[in-house]
């Protein structure tokens, strides 16, 4: 299986260690990874703002870069969901459809495709709070929703429970939005900020030393709150925790 590594533009620019951790994690599990060097933004910011037509160039570039890949894996639920739902091409409709059906968020790929049941080298002796992002939960179905009367599950939680020494703390509101929402945090700054503070407070109240998740966009929002509060609590992408100790 030829796996293309998709690193969202904001991860590349602000959190490159997340991309490196994702690569290390996949390779440690025996995955052959290729990284197209000309990849860039998936086009989500334009689409979220109602200008999906302006993302046509991003769609074309994505298809060109990942055409030779059997599957594409990315460490960002929001970007992956955008590609799954909106990747489009008038010139190559069949290839766009193929890629839409074969792009995976990292945790989804690990649990559903690789069927990971052990991470023998992973060790992280800290109290960790898991932030469940809206795109991952409600769009990609990475975990169950608390308002539904249905069996409970969480793919990220399953992976974290494989890490030696990690203490996953319970939260009062396990699937509450962090308030980032892409451009929402710009146009609704006050509301976004309050939501972020509430989300952080839940983790702090339960003694989390680290807040993790599968979306660095959400974690960036929470990191901003933590820094302004001068809190020692840090944020880490789940890929960084799953490769800890290696």
From TrEMBL:
A cellular-component GO term for this protein: cytosol
UniProt xrefs under InterPro entries: Cys_rich_dom
Sequence ranges assigned to domain Cysteine-rich in this UniProt record: 3-84, 128-222
One of the record's GO molecular function terms: oxidoreductase activity
Domain of life: Bacteria
Name of the protein in its database record: (Fe-S)-binding protein
């Amino acid at each position: 299986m030829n796996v293309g590594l998709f690193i969202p533009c904001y991860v590349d620019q602000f959190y490159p260690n997340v991309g490196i951790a994702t690569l290390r994690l996949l390779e440690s599990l025996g995955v052959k990874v290729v990284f197209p060097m000309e990849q860039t933004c998936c086009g989500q910011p334009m689409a979220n703002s109602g200008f999906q037509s302006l993302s046509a160039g991003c769609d074309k570039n994505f298809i060109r870069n990942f055409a030779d890949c059997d599957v594409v894996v990315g460490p960002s639920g929001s970007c992956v969901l955008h590609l799954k739902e909106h990747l489009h091409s008038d010139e190559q409709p069949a290839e766009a459809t193929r890629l839409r059906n074969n792009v995976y968020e990292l945790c989804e790929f690990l649990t559903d495709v690789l069927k990971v049941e052990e991470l023998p080298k992973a060790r992280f002796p800290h109290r960790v709070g898991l932030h469940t992002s809206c795109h991952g939960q409600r769009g990609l179905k990475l975990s169950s929703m608390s308002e539904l009367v249905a069996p409970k599950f969480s793919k990220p939680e399953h992976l974290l429970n494989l890490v030696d020494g990690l203490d996953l703390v319970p939260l009062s509101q396990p699937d509450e939005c962090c308030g980032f929402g892409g451009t929402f945090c710009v146009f609704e700054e006050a509301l976004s900020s309050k939501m972020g503070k509430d989300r952080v407070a839940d983790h702090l109240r339960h003694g989390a030393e680290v807040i993790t998740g599968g979306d660095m966009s959400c974690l960036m929002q929470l990191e901003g709150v933590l820094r302004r509060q001068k809190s020692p609590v840090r944020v880490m992408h789940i890929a960084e925790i799953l490769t800890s100790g290696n």
